[in-house]
Amino acid sequence: MLYIVIPVFNRLAFTRACLESLRRQTCQAFRVIVVDDGSTDGTSARLATGFPEVEVLRSTGGLFWTAAVNLGIRRALILDAHPIMTLNNDTVAPPDFIANMLLWARRQPRALLGPLELDAATDQPVFGGELFSFLTHKTRRLLDILAPEDRTGLHPVTYLPGRGLLVPAEVFRTLGLFDEGRLPHYLADYDFTSQARRAGFPVYVNYATHLLTYPDASGQAKTRRRRSLRGYTQHLFGIQGGGNLLNFSRFAIKNAPILYLPFFLLNGYARRLLGYFLH
């Protein structure tokens, strides 16, 4: 049975829309675990009455993304889940989302799979996977590489985000869970999928499966829209900072080839120190 783990902190409207979209799935062979990390907007109570089919795990706050999804994954593994999907609450799943994900999971039972992401407001593709070079620090977006007629089926990528990430239970039993100790919020998903790829588990973006997202609702997008000295400090040092220097250092040490590491670190620091104001 597929288990879907959704970490939430407030934003009840997003959570309700996400869960409503899961109710409309053509395939209902799944269960949902919501991890409510200290919401103050009545999320847990509203879900208990409005979505009784959803299991809600409550925490007092401070888990952030990684520890929250790990809490849900541990529960799912106890319930003998296979596979497990991590899903953000600011997503909407088209009716065939689960059916398509499970179809391709049966074809590639050892693979980690992620969907093609579409902007919920425009229905235009916003994320279709990336190929990353640790030598040059260059990212090649598949949406820029693939011709329109080739945007179908599975395409190998370097890593995947946690939005709609489907993971065979075997991967968790082999590698353990997301690295909540060193990567409490950002980069834990990229780290985990990179580790899985190097351990021999294929990592694909699935162009046959779409997920609607809200790019402007992310914490990074909000911080960049309100550029300030305080925002810059949060960007570089806050747990939820997209350019957090410590998190980047830990990710680099874990994932960059040793010969590339010094240059990769210097390049990455420069991008984070300057990029906040340039992009």
- What is the C-alpha radius of gyration, as a whole number of Å? 18 Å
Care to count the β-strands? 12
Beta-strand content estimate: 15-25%
The major beta sheet can be summarized as:
5 strands, mixed
The structure class reads alpha/beta
Helix content: 40-55%
- What fold name stands as the CATH topology of the largest domain? Spore Coat Polysaccharide Biosynthesis Protein SpsA, Chain A
Architecture of the largest domain in CATH? Answer: Alpha-Beta Complex
Summary of the model, kept short:
With 279 residues, the chain is α/β, with parallel strands linked by helices. The chain contains eleven helices and twelve strands.
Summarize this structure as a short list of keywords or feature phrases.
single chain; 279 residues; alpha/beta; Spore Coat Polysaccharide Biosynthesis Protein SpsA, Chain A; 2 domains; five-stranded mixed sheet; 12 strands; globular
